Amino acid sequence: MTITCILSDVDGVLTDGRITFDENGVESKSFHARDGQGIKCWLDAGFTFAVVTARRSDLVTRRMAELKIEHVIQGSQNKLEDADGLLAKLGCDWAQTAFVGDDLADLSAIRRAGLGVTPADGATDIHAAADLVLQTEGGRGAVRELIEHLLRQSGRWDSIVKQKT
Predict the structure, then answer these.
(1) What are the residues whose beta carbons fall under 8 Å from the beta carbon of 133, sequence distance 6 or more?
(2) HSE-CB for 26 with a 13 A CA cutoff
């Protein structure tokens, strides 16, 4: 099985899952730079990365734009249905797709994906359903761990490292 597309949740995967509001109601999230570098490597290798998340956030819009991620679904009420539609639009097959999620809203997509993935601190039911439980927690470079794993498995990692150095 060759994974060519990664679909990722945001809160609990690309962030540590905490949603913080200041006294003025302004939301903040923290994204890990290593995840960003990993996503850039994945895209540079010619693969697809997209986001399917239940919440809506201007911070997600901004970060995904910085990373040049073109396909972002926010406010998803049914991640499996939204992912189905997105994969059809992209011409990707579930068998070649990794879905990374951490909680119950991600369960059906994790089960459907060719490679269901969760960070180390994903919910218990997600751990049980996932094909791969990462060693890294969400928001701490878990997506980078997955991408490096997949690129090493495909024999592409060394050439990416050479290009970056």
Answers:
(1) 117, 118, 119, 120, 122, 127
(2) 3
- Tally of domains within the chain: 1
Tens of pLDDT, residue by residue over 102-115, are 999 999 999 999 99
Main-chain phi, psi angles of 50, to 5 degrees = -140, 165
Give the tokens for residue 152.
């090493």
Distances in Å between the Cα of 41 and the Cα atoms of 73, 145, 152, 159 are 22, 12, 12, 10
CA dist., res. 104 & res. 41, Å (int): 29
Q: Residue 54: which CATH number?
A: 3.40.50.1000
Tell me the average pLDDT of the chain. Answer: 96
State how beta strands 20-21 and 27-28 pair. Answer: antiparallel
